[in-house]
Amino acid sequence: MTSMQVEPNDGKEAAGADEGYQRGLGARQIQMIAIGGAIGTGLFLGAGKAISKAGPSLILAYAIAGLVIFFIMRALGELLMYRPVSGSFSEYAREFIGPFAGFVTGWTYWLFWVVTGMTEVTAAAQYMTYWFDIPQWVSALIFTIILYGANLISVKLFGELEFWFSMVKVTAIIGMILICLGILTLGFSDAGETASVTHLWADGGFFPKGIGGTLMTLQIVMFAFLAVELVGVTAGESKDPEKTLPKAINTVPWRIAVFYVGALIMILSVVSWTHFEPGVSPFVAAFDKMGLAVGAGIVNFVVLTAALSSCNSGMYSTGRMLRDLALNNQGPKLFTRLTRNGTPLIGTTFSALLMMFGVWINYQWPGKAFEMVVSFATISGMWAWIMILVSQIRYRARADRGELPESTFKAPGAPFTSWFALAFIGMVIVMMGVDKDARISLYCAPLWGLILGVSYLVLKSRNPDGAAFAKRS
To answer: 448 φ, ψ to 5°?
Structure first.
């Protein structure tokens, strides 16, 4: 099957107009959703384990991976300006690769956010233990219920929550960078006497665990960037996607430079990398080492906010992906239903119920819950990136031949940058196979692929149009 089965779009059609969604997301909300998507649990919690594995060289890993993420986002931006639709990843996979690719991408991205939701409520529950001696599963359950309720009210409320969640994260990281800069220059706090940029190379060198140790952190690094593509899911509910989406995507480089590279340089200059350990937020640990207990409590609140923000995004995106699949005859029709406020009630509810599995994981294995779900979230999330890149390469080839209209937001350096990003993702997958802790995700991926393959064959036998045709009913 080829993409010719899909009716081409001239790139000007309003995505949300015929999808039933309300265009409730304004420019400031789209901007903060894009910024917030790059700041989450992978940075606030996962970086602790990555620092212990790679030392200061983690900074380089984030910088290189950040460049790859920018290539991915510009590829997505080119597709979005060609045809801005909700559920964009599976839509583009259907058009440029084939119906089965769209089927796999839609369901895999849905699963990614379900698993990520489990990851984030797990992280949030861990953060709550900083203040309260309560079981992790209790906190996870409460957070899941609250965010589920918020997502059913309206997309505008979702956007507003994400705006303030992101504002808290951005303000906190900038504040932390300024505090660390003050400690380095003025020498205040308990860490003032020992703080020095020489920590970046003096304590075992810039690569204290060797280049191999740095490569082994790539899975954690890429997990930290997962969700930056969420801005593509908002296309159908953006008030002015032609202006807001390119602007949001073009902020990716400075977001990564400030919030990842800049923040890590500051933290690892003030406190030696040898003081950080897995399972503990490096931001909280840094303030503890500085003797700023109040600051550590504030940062813990911030990282709690980051986890809830990501879970909130998961609640939002899962319902949209299920509805997109249902509209294309690749999922149960009941998922197409919207409330009066334009929210996919049944799809969101179904996803939230599955996220409750994360509550059970927290009950059974509170100490290992985060690591258990991170690996699978990473491999399933990277599948969406692969589909974005392949779709963009095929779209660009057809646009260059004059078969499709050119995008108003062409990716610079493509398709070479897209091929480079694909190669980098391939290397990350190889590193995951080498890492015994991450290897389980590679075992689960073929099983998930088998489930989808069988499901597609069943769909094809019962509904040939759904399996062989990507046009909306």
So the answer is: -65, -40
Which has the minimum average pLDDT: 47-56, 224-233, 333-342, 420-429? 224-233
**Residue 370's pLDDT is what?**
56
**329-358: average pLDDT:** 83
**Amino acid (one-letter) located at 423:** A
Query: What does pTM read for this prediction?
Result: 0.83
Most confident of 82-86, 129-133, 211-215, 252-256: 211-215
State pLDDT tens for residues 211-255.
988 998 888 888 788 777 777 666 556 667 777 778 778 877 887
CA distance 271 to 282: 10
